Amino acid sequence: MHNDDLADDGLIQRCRSGDDRAFGELVAKYQNLVYGLIYRLAADRTHAEDLAQDVFLRIHRGLPYFRGEARLSTWIFRIVQHVCVETRGKRRVNLSLDQPPGDRGPRSEPGGPDTAFADLELRDRLEKAMAKLPEQYRFLIAAHYLRGVRYEALAESLNLPLGTIKTHLYRAKRRLRDLLDT
Amino acid sequence: MTCHDVVQLVEAIAAGDLEVSEEVRRHVESCPPCAAALASARRIEAALSAWPQPAAPAAFAAAVVARVRSEQWTSEQRVDRVFNAAIAFAVLVVIGGIAALTNVSGVLAGANWLVNAVATSLSEMAVQAAPAIRTYVAAVGVLMTALLMWWWAERRFTV
């Protein structure tokens, strides 16, 4: 068993035995993962913080029933997914690729003086394009490009083979490219 | 190799999961649309890799723990209300049981005694109630069980 999994097991046991500080440690350990993922999937920062708190409340409620068959991070991924899907059903994200192709500002060559601006512009358009992707693609991309998230964890959380995860990621990025190129 | 074949591979190549074969290289060098697709895929890959890693606000963990405690307190209050209602119900059951066992005329007689203060004496009531002593014991048992459950819940759900 991985060292991190052992540490998680210890944290879970302490949480179950009523150790208050253990849950605080668990939140501190996973807060950037949960917040980062939700931040990328939600429309605004305030909304992201509330949703991230909701995720941890669900984790706290569910800890007594967590059987440890999957990794803690995998279980957390699933909760994040559920919270995002439920929220998306209630509130629509008003983002669109409304910038016409001819109105994208000056193009610059890599390494040129406007590179930073071009990167920002691309990132902005990328985030808008992300909002147009199907739920699962959006989740995959948001999770994959968070530091420390491995293909294996994604495969486990989505209950899909590793190869399928990679294929879905390529398809998701192709959809992004299509959205950005049109 | 066709454009269709190459376009299927550009994301994997851009992600570094697939090495560019000689065949693909030759095609891309001679095909501007495929070259553009690969360049675009690489730009997207670079932008996604450089995507800022949003960090949780400084007080996030404290806010979560505070929400958990608040939720626990609310849950505890709910449990308290349920047990209060259970005890009130148990008391009503006991009173109802007494009334039923001592029969209506007995209750009315008791009420009359209270109103008139002299109708019956306490000893007569005791004699009247004596046959129902098992019911009294059972009612006290129910009440004590409810109190014990309340005590247990207080210990179990108090942070």
Question: What can you see in these coordinates?
Answer:
Chain A contains 8 helices and no strands. Chain A has 2 domains: 3-90, RNA polymerase sigma factor, region 2, helix turn helix motif (Rna Polymerase Sigma Factor, Chain: A); 101-130 and 132-181, Winged helix-like DNA-binding domain superfamily/Winged helix DNA-binding domain (Arc Repressor Mutant, subunit A, Orthogonal Bundle), CATH 1.10.10.10. Chain A has 182 residues and is mainly α. In chain A, helix 2 crosses helix 4, helix 3 (45-62) crosses helix 4 (72-90) and helix 7 (151-158) packs across helix 8 (162-181). Helix content of chain A is 70%, strand content 0%. Chain A has helices at residues 3-16, 20-41, 45-62, 72-90, 115-130, 135-144, 151-158, 162-181. The relative contact order of chain A is 0.10. Residues 92-113 of chain A have low confidence and may be disordered. Chain B is an all-alpha fold. Chain B folds into 2 domains: 3-49, no CATH class; 60-157. In chain B, 81% of the residues lie in helices and 0% in strands. Chain B contains 7 helices and no strands. Chain B has helices spanning 3-15, 22-30, 32-49, 60-101, 104-116, 122-129, 133-157. The two termini of chain B are 67 Å apart. Classes of the chains: A mainly alpha (182), B mainly alpha (159). The A-B interface holds A 20, 23-24, 27-28, 31-32, 34-36, 39-40, 48-49, 52-53, 56-57, 60, 119, 122-123, 126, 141, 145-147, 166, 169-171, 173-174, 176-177, 180-181 and B 10-12, 14-15, 17, 37, 40-41, 43-45, 47-51, 53-57, 60-65, 67-68, 71, 159.
